[in-house]
Amino acid sequence: MATAKSRTYRLHLSDEGTDAFLECHLRLARIARRFIPYGATLTVAVLLIEALDCPELSDELSAPRVNRLSGRIEHFVGASPHLAHAAARMLEQLEISLCGGPALTAARLFTAAIALMSASEDSEIARAYRSIGTAFATQDPETLA
Questions:
Q1: Strand ranges for the chain from DSSP E
Q2: Euclidean distance between CA atoms 97 and 91, whole angstroms
Q3: Between the CA atoms of 61, 29, 9 and 59, what dihedral angle is there, to the nearest 10 degrees?
Q4: pTM as predicted
Q5: How do residues 118-128 score in pLDDT, each as one tens digit?
Q6: Cα separation of 67 and 72, whole Å?
Q7: CA separation (Å) from 36 to 57, 67, 79, 126?
Q8: Burial level of 33, CB count in 10 A (0-12/13-18/19+)?
Q9: Per residue, what are the HEC states of 93-131?
């Protein structure tokens, strides 16, 4: 059976969140010096947040900015299906290590990733962008099917 090359992710953002995503997208395109798909921006954001340890990730998910960026405006972004697996893995690690706090959902994780990307250095963003092709290669192939 063929594996899907992309998947659509639903983002629920406020006006501020929509602006933040678009600013991240423009910034990444400038860093890369090329036109890029929206999915590349979401992927870079996830790679940046995936590099955090559990306490840092918990802090990012609980940050007030995540609430401000979250909203009712629905956006659809096509990206690698591996993002869903990465998000599930991070959320599972958090559930094991933490109790309480805001609801742990992939949507909240993606919004926190956008907030983190907004605050990241250009060099960190460039490094994450360069690693997109190999970022998920170390995952267990059975979990990717």
A1: 7-13, 73-79
A2: 10
A3: 0
A4: 0.85
A5: 999 999 999 99
A6: 12
A7: 27, 27, 12, 13
A8: exposed
A9: HHHHHCCCCCCCCHHHHHHHHHHHHHHCCHHHHHHHHHC
